[in-house]
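> example.struct
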């Protein structure tokens, strides 16, 4: 039996959800709360399996309550059920520990399935909400190899030309410098990047993220 806590500032919504879930033998609504602060107290005393959480509520909103529950009571899963599909709400809820995010127009049978899935440890997102989450997801940090920042702009340019297959003579002609200067730069490049030869240098360059 999944012990469920309903959290919504509208009594009519809570009563409707309770009536909807009354016939489900796998779910028991053990309590209701009208805001996040009240929900925290009930989670602490009752330790429900799943919290069905609204987002916009007075006193403490659903995102803040979700964060607190996730940090203090990680065994309790939070499934957001709201009318708001804003990208910001979706991202904040998931980042703060929500196990799912559904809209209130979700069909009853799908809501029941989502509650059961969240209880088992699966993440549940309503139709189209996964795309909103991807839009909000931060880009991974750009990573360059050790020694990259020690290269001068000229050395970075020479490395780029090496990666195109240019010879020392061709690089010298392209940059209007002496071929001996090119050799000296290549020696510095290989040393700073800890590379064996220009073939490794070319491979490394092609693996780099876009240059800043």
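> example.seq
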């Amino acid at each position: 039996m999944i012990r469920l806590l309903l959290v919504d500032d509208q009594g009519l919504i809570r009563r409707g959800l309770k009536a909807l879930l009354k016939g489900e033998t796998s779910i028991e609504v053990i309590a209701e709360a009208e805001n996040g602060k009240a929900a925290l107290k009930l989670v602490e005393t009752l330790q429900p399996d799943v919290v069905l959480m609204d987002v916009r509520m007075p006193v403490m909103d659903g995102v803040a309550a979700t964060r607190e529950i996730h940090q203090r009571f990680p065994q309790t899963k939070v499934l957001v059920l709201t009318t708001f599909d804003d990208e910001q709400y979706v991202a904040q809820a998931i980042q703060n520990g929500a196990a799912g995010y559904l809209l209130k127009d979700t069909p009853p049978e799908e809501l029941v399935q989502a509650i059961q899935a969240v209880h088992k440890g699966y993440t549940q997102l309503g139709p189209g909400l996964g795309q909103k989450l991807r839009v909000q997801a931060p880009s991974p940090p750009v990573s360059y190899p050790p020694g990259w920042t020690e290269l001068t702009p000229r050395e970075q340019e020479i490395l780029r030309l090496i990666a195109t297959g240019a010879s020392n003579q061709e690089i010298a002609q392209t940059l209007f410098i002496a071929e001996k200067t090119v050799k000296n730069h290549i020696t510095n490049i290989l040393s700073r990047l800890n590379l064996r030869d220009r073939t490794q240098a070319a491979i490394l360059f092609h693996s780099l993220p876009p240059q800043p």
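> remarks
The longest helix spans residues 179-192.
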